Predict the 3D structure of the following.
Amino acid sequence: EAGVVQSPRYKIIEKKQPVAFWCNPISGHNTLYWYRQNLGQGPELLIRYENEEAVDDSQLPKDRFSAERLKGVDSTLKIQPAELGDSAVYLCASSFGLTREQYFGPGTRLTVT
Amino acid sequence: AQTVTQSQPEMSVQEAETVTLSCTYDTSENNYYLFWYKQPPSRQMILVIRQEAYKQQNATENRFSVNFQKAAKSFSLKISDSQLGDTAMYFCAYSGGGADGLTFGKGTHLIIQP
C-alpha cells in the first residue's frame, strides 16, 4: 500500500513570493490533515478535511494561507505571499474512519529568504 | 484546550539498555487517544504505539510499551533492548473525540550510543 505522498520535498523562495504544496493521501482515507512543524517543535494542525469539506481551519492564517481538497482526494496548501516566519516543514497526514491513527507523509521543508 | 508536555528535551542511553520517555497531558475529556510517534532525520513521522483512554491495559508493541496513568494524566513510553535505529525524535500526541487533529508535545531527542 502506497503511503502519503507529498511534493516537493524542499522549496526555497524569496519572501513575498507564492508557494504551493501538494499532498496525495493513502487511498480510501477520507480525512486529511495539514500540519506545520517549526524547528525544534512538534507539528501544529493547520487544517483538517473530511472528504471535500474543511471541518477545522481555526489555526489556518487565512490572510495568506489557503487550502483546497478537490474531489475529496488530493489537497493543495498555498501561501501567498510568503513571509520569513513561514519557514518550516509542512506535513500532510491522512486517516480513515475513527481509528484516530494518522499516517504522515515525508513533509515539505520550506525556506523563505 | 488540550496540552501535551514532554519534559526531557534529550536523552542518551547505551545500546541494549532500557529507556523511558515521559509525557504528561491536560484534558477535561474522558474519552481520548494517546500516541507516541517517532521522527527520524528523514522527517517521516512513524506511529510507534497508541493507547485508548477507556482501556486500562497498557499497550505494547514488541520492544515498545507504555505506562498509562489516567488519573495522573501521564503517558510514558518504555523502549526495551534499545537499538541504534531507535535514535530519533519521539513525540507524544493527544487526540480527542472524533477524527480530531493531533496535539503534540515538543518532543524528546533520543540518542542510542553504540
Observations:
- Residues 32 and 96 of chain B are 4 Å apart (CA to CA).
- The interface with chain A takes residues 4, 33, 35, 37, 42-47, 50, 91, 93, 95, 98-107 of chain B (CB under 8 Å).
